[in-house]
Amino acid sequence: MRRGNVDMTLTFEFMWAVVTFSFGMAFTPGPNNTVAFSTGLNYGFFRTIPYGLGVATGLPLLILAVALGLGEFFRAFPQSYDYIKYAGIAYIVYLSWKIATADPRQNRSEKNVPAQASAVGNLDKPDKCPAFSDGVLFQWMNPKAWLLAVTGATTYIGQDTLSVKLAFFCGMFSFMSFASLVAWSFGGELSGRLIRSPRVFRTMNILMGILLLSSVISLL
Fold this sequence. Notes:
Blueprint: E1 2-3, E2 6-7, H1 12-27, H2 31-43, H3 49-76, H4 78-100, H5 104-109, H6 132-138, H7 143-157, H8 164-194, H9 198-217
Antiparallel strand pairs: 1-2
């Protein structure tokens, strides 16, 4: 069914496919979830929420951009996608190092102090909590986000760019990504409350850095 130029068709099969795809992509380990866990561990659950809201905003914007034009650009110039992917991987390698070498003691002692957010730079500054803008802009450097955006736009949306399918797809990924980050950051907060030894804290940060690094190795 169409209303004007907009395709209003939305079947149960399509919705179920998108729900399962978004759940699998959102809740499995990846850069967003690793940063959320690390932030919850070092700063606490509530200070992770702005970053989570940023991811839930930035990811649908990336999907929209790919569906409404960037996808065609990548098909015309396929090497450009590789450049973006490797730039994102390089940034995540750097971010993994910053997380692994962070000193958690000062972060936990100051977790109730308001975050001093800059436009984009808190992800790689262990003395500052990631902000909303970091969550939004990190998606454009996140290879897993690019992968799901390109895959989703080509497999689930196709040529139906003016459709409720695209709106449902973006909305579901926004919801699932925020729900996943809530769960992962709560896990980080719980771990932080259980850990008393600075040595164990440092070990956890190293493990989070390794997990973040391993999340992009399969993309090489």
